[in-house]
Design a protein that fits this description.
Helices cover about 70% and strands about 0% of the residues. By secondary structure, the chain is mainly α.
Length: about 300
Amino acid sequence: MTLATAILLTVITAATPLLIAAIGELVVERSGVLNLGVEGMMIMGAASGVAVAIITGSSTLGVLAAIGAGVALAAIFALLTLALAANQYASGLALTIFGVGLSGVVGAPFVGVQREGIGRITIPFLSDIPVIGPVLFRQDLFVYASVALVIGVSWFLWRTKSGLILRACGENPVSAHALGYRVLRIRLYAVLFGGACAGLAGAYLSLVLTPFWTSGMTAGRGWIALAIVVFASWLPFRAMLGAYLFGGLIILQLHAQTAGVAIPSQFLAALPYLLTIVALTLIMAARRGTGAGSVAPAGLGQPFTPDR
């Protein structure tokens, strides 16, 4: 029972940053924008969050700084792709390279500096239930926030007029514009929301998972978040399932290596990223799909310039 609890807790820990980043990117892609810069925004969130938390001694300010860093990089991406109609694929890759490089500069003074991480919230009595108690009722705020994001985004996209308008901008921006909706403004809000989520996911890495800064600590999680969106067919609750599946794969390969499974450790370590590559290659195929078989937003990755 103790082993089962420990495994579930580690899976949740591994899945939480993936889920937060994936939900943000799902909203972005539903609006018709493909931002491949999630990795860059995440690592900038991690660097900015731990830097501000160490300087001020406040984890709250660290989290806010991480969100702000993600939004700032998302704003740069929006300027390039929405205002200047630059290629979204190239701009996203450039954003990742820029974020990784800048994070190294921001985090350099704080390498190896440890601070107390953000603790867990323990719900009396419920947290004492065997197995499920520690898993469900003894978690940090980020875990509960990730679940709230899934529920909130699902409700917004499928139960509100604003969500319908956002999805319309992703499916057919020309028609949405003809109906009087400001497509670029709506996409801007979606991109900024995605940046905030990526920054929050980065804050989890440096303030909760490993409460210190090290270069490259995102370790490809931004790319995995992109893959989760495709795996989930652009649906929030499926994204939650996908995040926990990928988180489970990350933990599985660690346990398999520890248990001495007769499979090359390099293959086990690369397995989550191999699946990520496969999922990312489906983006173009899904975007080209037509008819009922197409699950991706029809306007995904296509720049839109209003006539007037």
